[in-house]
Amino acid sequence: MKTPALVKALEEAHQHLGIAVRRERGPFRGGRCLVDGHEVVVLNKRQPAEAQLAVLAESLRTLPVEQLYLRPSVRVALEDAWAARAAGAVSDGSDAFDEA
Q1: N or C, fewer C-beta in 10 Å, the chain?
Q2: In CATH, what number is assigned to the domain containing residue 52?
Q3: Which residues are CB-neighbours of 12 under 8 A, at least 6 positions away?
Q4: Is 34 contained in some domain?
Q5: CA pair distance 75, 57, nearest whole angstrom
């Protein structure tokens, strides 16, 4: 499964868990936060799909994903992203875009 399709699947997983996903521009990597008392995942739309995938996967790490049906390829990608993060193989995304 290609990275943009994986990003879309992980966005849908968040939505099934009641967490909105927003795409914004700015000098940030993204992540899950509270906005007016509601959990939201903010993605930097200037970052590549691989960086967005890492942000979404990290957000799902502490959520009950076992309750969701995820296609096997999506679940494998999610577990691979968690393993890469644990191994320190994921950058902070600061080199993924140029600040204007």
Answers
A1: C
A2: 3.30.2010
A3: none
A4: yes
A5: 10
Q: Which domain holds residue 72?
A: 3-85
**Global pTM exceeds 0.85:** no
β-pairing verdict for 30-35 and 20-24: unpaired
Provide the token pair at 60. Answer: 């799902």
Q: In which element (H, E) is residue 13 found?
A: helix 3-16
- Give the closest residue to 19 by CA, choosing from 31, 27, 4: 31
What is the full per-residue pLDDT of the chain (100 aa) written as tens digits? 899 999 999 999 999 999 999 999 999 999 999 999 999 999 999 999 999 999 999 999 999 999 999 999 999 999 999 999 888 865 544 443 333 3
Q: Is 90 part of a structural domain of the chain?
A: no
DSSP label at 30?
E
**Number of structural domains the chain divides into:** 1
The amino acid at 53: L
pLDDT of 88 reads: 82
